[in-house]
Amino acid sequence: MRAFFQKLERRFGRYAIPRLTLVIIGCYVLGYMMEAINSNAAAYMNLNMAKVLQGQIWRLVTWIVIPPSSLDVFTIIMLFFYFSIGSTLERAWGDFCYNLYVLGGMLLSVIAALITYLAFGAATGAWERIGSIVGNSFTTYYITLSLLLAFAATFPDSPVYLMFVLKVPMKYLGYIDGAIIVYTIITNVRYALRGYFGNWIIVIAICASMLNFIIFFLLTRSGTTLNRRQRQVRRNFRKTQKIAASGRGTSSGRAAAGSAASNVVKLRTHRHRCTVCGRTEISDPDLEFRYCSKCSGAHEYCMEHLYTHVHITAQEEES
User: Fold this and answer.
1) DSSP bridge partners of 280
2) Handedness of CA 86, 92, 97, 101 (dihedral sign)
3) Are 66 and 31 in contact (CB under 8 A)?
4) Confidence grade of residue 200 (pLDDT, cut at 50, 70, 90)
């Protein structure tokens, strides 16, 4: 599956939208402006499939403009927060993968909305009512929450300051986010079992919005298996690091480190190496590497450690 996504990127990567997070935030700002002009603007832009099939095809796009919540101070803070995590994911994954995650989630929601409308409409015969419920249920709210889950899964130890004071690892916010989603699903299922069939549509909308997270992190974020030669490269590199650390600053230590490093070069020369974990493009061909602008000197890091490592100062570099 990962190879399939890589083939897609090689073929369609040039069509990716750069700075997609900024584009989405801009769409929300436009939506707030339209609601300020006309409080009923959302009713003409939501994903009402009954209206779409009657010719109002602009709803397939304009539902993205509808903001996930009403405008207040808390919403403004959350928009800045989502802009921060979205931009970080965009830099870490690359434009294409980030586009595929966000726009793919939106496309899955549109497909699910159409199927849900046709299925429930045929079962009840209340086509207009079902179309209205679908339009109000399928929004960008849970797609936005899936973005937070993606960030928590990618950078679980990244710190977040709640109320600008309390430092909390991002993974705990991910757990809370996931618990809220599960609780919402369970609550709607309980109401649906009592005969309120509209709650089934809400459950489907939530699951469709989370489907992109499931696809990306159950199918494409699994660990890679190293062959015997790659494991030998990793062992030699770690041995080099250990020798260099124990004999740093001495001629014998540098000589021993150089001897051990030569064993790595003999196996195969790499061009990129993570300063923290020592993985290279040889040991893990799917890794991406970036230089850290805050570290003194030229130090490369894999995406797992790019935003979580301890920066190297000039004094450490000289020693």
Assistant:
1) 273
2) negative
3) yes
4) very high
| Choice among 197-201, 254-258, 260-264 with the minimum mean pLDDT | 260-264
Rounded distance between C-alpha atoms, residue 260 and residue 94, angstroms = 35
| Residue 122 φ/ψ, nearest 5 degrees | -65, -35
The count of residues in the chain is 319
pLDDT of residue 255: 54
Angle made by CA atoms 212, 216, 219, in degrees to the nearest 5: 125
Q: How far are the Cα atoms of 76, 78, 145 from residue 72, in angstroms, in the given order? A: 6, 10, 18
The candidate with the shortest Cα–Cα distance to 301, out of 269, 271, 268, 278, is 278
The CA-based dihedral angle spanning residues 314, 276, 221, 91, taken in that order and rounded to the nearest 10 degrees: 10
Per-residue DSSP letter, 162:
E
Half-sphere CA count of 150, side-chain side, radius 13 A: 30
Q: How far is CA 37 from CA 42, 58, 162, 298, in A?
A: 11, 19, 34, 52
The H-assigned helical ranges of 94-197 are: 95-124, 127-137, 141-154, 170-193
Region at 249 (left for phi over 0; alpha for psi -120 to 50; beta for the rest): left
Collapsed DSSP state (helix, strand, coil) of residue 221: coil
State which of 13-17, 22-26, 76-80, 217-221 shows the largest mean pLDDT.
Answer: 22-26
Closest to 283 in 3D by CA, of 217, 218, 238, 216: 238
Tell me the C-alpha distance between 258 and 189, whole Å.
Answer: 63
Q: Is 182 helix (H, G, I), strand (E, B) or coil?
A: helix
E strands, the chain, are 159-162, 166-169, 289-291, 300-302
Mean pLDDT of 251-277: 60
DSSP code of 15?
A: G
Record the pTM: 0.66
The average pLDDT across 94-108 equals 88
Q: Which amino acid is at 97?
A: C
Fill in the DSSP letter of residue 168.
Answer: E
Extract the tokens encoding 250. Answer: 């001495």
Supply 40's token pair: 């009923």
